[in-house]
Design brief:
The structure is a single chain. This protein is α+β, with helices and mostly antiparallel strands. Helix content is about 20%, strand content about 30%. The protein is built from eleven helices and 34 strands. The strands form seven sheets. Strands 1, 3, 4, 6, 7, 8, 9, 10, 22, 23 and 24 form an eleven-stranded mixed beta sheet that branches. A hairpin with a 2-residue loop joins β30 and β31. α4 packs across α11 and α9 runs parallel beside α10. It is globular and about 85 Å long.
Length: about 650
């Protein structure tokens, strides 16, 4: 009997090990890239013969000594549905397979942003029955080393029941492509909010880069548990150095009390995410406090506390009394203050904030951070006291480089694709100048890994967002990041969608993703699919100084330059002399050039256009209604010139 049991156990073990296994990306409802070789790969026993059948093709291969195998099917025309059949010692049948166009969609929160959150979402969801549009959602995951397969993910067919969770930019892009091409469109959504470009770049790319090889040499190659422990220790030490006090929950119950002395605490600019301040990429628990002084007349009125938005969770106290709490990171906090809580003299607002991942802290529009007392408004923006009491031991995507490349990109390689759509940069504005090297490095890295030539890589230039009140006078990180994105167009087969006119200065996540998708689609339709059309707004070419005027010429003017209000006067131009002080300028369109001047600058040398975090007012377009990209004509040092990517030590 024992011999029979032993034999059965051995037999079960052999069968279990013999099964051919496919990556999660190869599943029912998938879309394969047309007109290119189609890599199909997986795992089996060492030296096991594997046969792949698709449409009229049958190819076979023997797995290597590690059990890995890959077959390249010949290029197929658009069509389907087909079955993809993989046979080893077992058989896998993948059903409802289409052949068409496949695009990877990646980046941070504005690519992650879902259809259900966009403007007119209800109408869009009602019109989403497109069985030829398929979406693969890559589950968010981290890894210290390149992974062979994804944590999770599945293909879904566009419908009212599914489309709400699709990447909005990717979906609206796909919808336009399908309307024009009438062939299957597959979008692979691998994105994560609040992430920097370095986490999406492979270790090998950094090692080969003169600019980053020293940095990556100091980053250990460890499993995720070891990296987590190392990160937690380093983060705790860094935070304690910044705030000057231990990271501890000791006496936390007294922090809400008005009598507590917070003079030893550090200060944060508010509203603004921690990631954009010296506190940096912190996940954990932080107390923030603000003292305000009220008169006897003030406290007679109904009081309402507005705390803009808080990422992620908060419990808010006034003078030790809880007035509200919320767990929605993108929800505005509006709390009624009960009668008799406020008092004449000093009052304390204390907020206990839990940040689980990504951005953290009080953020949003400064106008939404206030206390109203009847008709009186007391602004609450500015410096707030803070104390970190808990540092999360789990990693965030930005803790170390390559974490997301390893877990969320490497498993996709070498799936056949047409190209990549990218929306990211917000997390890199503090080192915008270095983005000129980091972003092209990542693009080149992906092209190398996928080994499909210089495939199209189209990205979205950052929209307007008034995060730091940056402008030409004090410098603008957002403008500098936009410039870095524009300079990336020097790379072959890249394209950029300008979004200056469809953003929201008070919201880092503008809800008009339809036009973003359409502008990316316009680039693809022109460059890839032969639908010749204007797909870009004006881009700065050169300047000529004539007396007190600077005359600007542009590429990509389409059928002519235009202001959005159809006048000959355009907004958003500034001009400076050798003193580097910029003044608002008069700018007119003449012969498809822009003539810029200011009575305050008799001897001009440089022009800025849209050089601000908030560039809402700029209005230069071409007649095809594509906006001009912001630019500068000088090469004076930027405020992010010396900011570089550093790994916590």
């Amino acid at each position: 009997m024992k011999k029979h049991i032993t034999f059965l156990l051995v037999l079960v073990s052999i069968v279990a090990n013999a099964n051919v296994k496919m990556p999660l990306l190869f599943a029912d409802g998938m879309v394969l890239q047309r007109n290119k070789e189609i890599p199909v790969w997986g795992w089996a026993d060492a030296n096991e013969k594997v046969e792949v059948h698709f449409n009229k093709q049958t190819k076979s291969i023997v797995a290597d000594k590690n059990g890995k195998w890959m077959i390249k099917l010949s290029a197929e025309k658009a069509g389907g549905p087909f079955e993809l059949i993989i046979t080893g010692k077992n058989k896998i049948i993948i059903k409802d397979v289409l052949v068409g166009e496949v695009w990877i969609c990646s980046g941070q929160s504005n690519m992650e942003f879902q259809v259900s959150k966009t403007v007119n979402a209800e109408k869009e969801i009602a019109d989403s029955n497109y069985p030829m549009i398929r979406h693969f959602g890559v589950a968010q995951d981290l890894s210290g080393k390149p992974k062979d397969d994804l944590k999770a993910g599945k293909w879904e067919v566009s419908s009212k029941e599914t489309v709400g969770n699709f990447t909005a930019v990717g979906y609206y892009f796909a919808k336009k492509l399908y309307a024009e091409l009438k062939i299957p469109i597959g979008i692979i959504n691998t994105s994560w909010g609040g992430t920097n470009v370095e986490t999406w770049t492979s270790r090998e790319a950094f090692q080969k880069s003169e600019d980053f090889k020293t940095m990556i040499a100091d980053v250990p190659t460890l499993n995720i548990d070891s990296i987590s422990k190392l990160y937690a220790r380093q983060m705790k030490e860094r935070v304690e150095k910044i705030q000057g006090t231990p990271v501890s929950t000791e006496n936390e119950n007294t922090f809400k009390e008005p009598t507590f002395n917070d003079t030893s605490w550090g200060e944060l600019n508010t509203p603004s995410l921690w990631e954009n301040q010296p506190l940096g990429d912190l996940d954990g628990i932080v107390w923030m406090r603000k003292i305000i002084t009220l008169s006897a007349e003030d406290i007679k009125n109904k009081a309402t506390l507005y705390l803009s938005k808080i990422d992620d969770e908060d419990i808010t106290y006034v003078n030790g009394i809880e007035v509200g709490k919320n767990t929605q990171w993108d929800f505005k906090r509006v709390y009624e203050v009960p009668a008799n809580v406020l008092k004449e003299g000093q009052n304390v607002i204390a907020v206990r904030i839990v940040d689980n991942s990504g951005g953290g802290g009080i953020y949003g529009d400064a106008a939404d951070l206030k206390l109203t007392l009847g008709n009186k408004t007391i602004p609450l923006d500015g410096k707030w006291k803070f104390k970190v009491i808990v540092v999360k031991t789990s990693l965030s995507p930005n803790s170390y480089p390559s974490l997301l490349y390893n877990a969320m990109v490497n498993p996709l390689v070498p799936y056949a694709i047409e190209g990549v759509l990218w929306y990211q940069g917000e997390a890199n504005v503090w080192r915008a100048n270095q983005y000129k090297k980091a972003f092209p490095l990542m693009i080149t890295d992906w092209r190398t890994k996928f080994n499909q030539g210089d495939f199209p890589f189209y990205f979205v230039q950052l929209s307007t967002f008034d995060e730091f009140k940056g402008n030409s006078k004090v410098g603008s990180r957002w403008a500098e990041l936009r410039e870095a994105q524009a300079e990336t167009l020097k790379l072959k087969n890249t394209g950029m969608a300008v979004t200056t006119d469809i953003g929201n200065a008070k919201d880092i996540h503008p809800t008009n993703k339809q036009d973003v998708g359409l502008r990316l689609a316009a680039i693809a339709l022109n460059n890839v699919y032969g639908k010749k059309q204007v797909y870009s707004g004006p881009t700065y070419k050169s300047q000529e100084i004539k007396g007190n005027q600077i005359i600007l010429t542009f590429d990509n003017i389409g059928s002519g330059l235009s202001a959005s209000d159809n006048s000959q006067n355009v907004k958003g131009f500034e001009i400076a002399g050798a003193d580097k002080v910029f003044h608002s300028a008069k700018a007119i369109i003449k012969d498809n050039k822009i003539i810029v001047s200011s009575e305050n600058v008799p001897n001009p040398v440089a022009v800025h256009y849209g050089w601000a975090d908030d560039d809402t007012e700029i209005n230069l377009f071409n007649k095809e209604k594509f906006p001009a990209s912001p630019f500068r004509t000088d090469n004076w040092e930027m405020i992010t010139a010396n900011e570089t990517y550093k790994v916590s030590k």
